[in-house]
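Annex B.
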Amino acid sequence: MKKLIILLYISLPVIACSSQNKKASKNTGRAIDYAKTITADELKEALYIFASDEFEGRKTGEPGQKKAIEFIKNHYMSVGVPSPIAEGDYFQEIPESYFPNKVKASENVLAYIKGTEKPDEVVIISAHLDHIGVTKKGEVYNGADDDGSGTVAILEMAEAFKIASEKGHGPIRSVLFLHVTGEEMGLYGSRYYTDKDPIFPLENTVANLNIDMIGRVDRKHKNNRNYLYLIGSDKLSKELHNISEKVNKKYINMKFDYTYNDDDDPNRFYYRSDHYNFAKNNIPVIFYFNGTHADYHRPSDTPDKIQYDLLETRARLIFHTAWELANRDERVKVD
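Peptidase M28: predicted structure tokens.
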């Protein structure tokens, strides 16, 4: 009898560990089903609204930006993705005093899916919601690619995670959908989140996947559009880089271009989007980027120029990567 009790005692942790591994594996196997809910048609429908003239170029603190945050909030409420701040309160308020040059108070928008087993650990998917505004001649900087493409991609990913949760396949870790303001004027929204008011403690933040322009093709890749620039994936965690590569080969098989990841890159894109405020806090990051084009920071960056089938593929890729990070037994290691 004593031998049987000892045997059972020894086997219990193994059973528990095996159960957890099976759950993670099961969730990973389901990823492709939920990725398919991210569609070009829904991305297009959302972007034609978000990057319309009605939103007046979404300049930080201005009326068009307020319309943009209401659009994002209403989307989350309509699909039942809650806020981590308080019920019905999706806005992280940033006071006017935080901005330079008398820029008016602004807001980040936050929504999340709570983790089933490790809710205190969080994977953050981010994109900036602001753009440049309106020219002196009254032309609207629509910012369809910059960064309307990243914004609507996150909305679709959040909906996919929500559908998965409703079917009993919620992520093991929490996933935060973070729409930041003030990027165009110096990464102010993401800096406010990391430096002033991290809703989830930075030490519990597993990784940041940042999306800034994923709806177009640059000149270098005009003859092979199945690509994406990745920046920063190996700078803090070789494991994150390897996971990213493995996920891509398994689900999408897109060409990853690491040109701008070079430490000597004269463009210094690694320092120029919102992931940097996480990286400076020792949080592993990946920055997804399609490169610049002729309409970059011009009123001609309009929704009709987005390649929606490509936006769908890229959004699914990032969703798969987030899914893997949220469902692994162990969080990615920082080198």
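DSSP finds eight helices and ten strands in the chain. Residues 2-35 form the longest helix (34 residues). Further annotation is deferred to the next reporting cycle.
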